[in-house]
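Entry 14. Structure prediction run on the chain below.
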Amino acid sequence: MPGKKLCPVCGASRRVIKEHEWLNDGTIVQRKNRDHRMVFIETENIASTFRGAEEIIGMSIERIIVEAKRRATFDFVDHILPGVVKAIIRLVGLAPVVRDISSLGSVMGYGDIKLVSIHRTHSKGDYATVSIKEPYSIPLFCGDLAGTFNATDRREVGVTYKETAPETYEVTGHISKNPLELQERLQTKPYTHKPGDISFEGCPKCGGPMALSEYQWHLDRGVIENKTRGRRMALVGPASLDAIIDELEKELGETIPQAVIEAQRRFIKTGFYSLEEVGTEELFRKELAIRGLGNLREIEWGEERMRFRLENPCLPLVIVGLVLGFFELASGREGEAEWELTGDGDLVVEVSSRA
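Output returned:
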């Protein structure tokens, strides 16, 4: 199937490598829009962070997740599809869009997506329903569906879903007759891109990092797994995740950043990641870089303190919680973190033991 082929050498999705590039500065970018960053991250990390934040603040944040992801996906699809293709889609219908969502979703690790039914007469009752098995995240996928339809059909979309079987959902995009208000596009913060010196061994066949050979693409299921640890991965735009946190703070107040840090700290303390994975500065640096989280430039471990500096960071609150959690795992002590984004964009985290 076009777009659903694996490299015979490293086993990575050829479409992923064709459309994305792992740079030597610790970032992953979309080749057609190098300002659009991606992260290759464990889905359980994303889910646990937002679930933990919900528990801390005592309310659901699903609505905010869907809306922020919708705007981010709109930007992504709007850049990746040529204007002539979007014009053709508006003429021939949404079925080609759903097929492309299915193909792209399977290689990005979003799940197994199939069209169920569609109604498109440019009236108020237009809709499209898809099924998804093993979704990487239902709220994020709802945003993906709405944003894709926004970019291709240029109309407002509301999304609902229901579980039809274990790990299987039907998701419906209710497409209105109202044109999309383009001022609702995501207002992303620019990421820094300081030059780096990270080097990955390249695959001689597809040119992607050979480190991706550690992962298995199950294209029939739309699932990417770490072969050794069994963790599920997905390629996600960090701008959408950062936007979710920003929207939470706007709506719910200044306690949100600390809630996100605390949720990530608790997640790290579960032992999902092992200390052996970050046992040396070079190991830690490689683990962050393959995920597109930034370029680790400085780390100092001690029993009482830890200092961490990351160039080209994204998801800064998540990273702060991660560093705090690793410090507590390594030291066996409770810690507290102070952090800042410097004037030139570096994330600096200093953790010390609580008195």
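The longest strand covers residues 168-179.
Filed with the rest of this week's runs.
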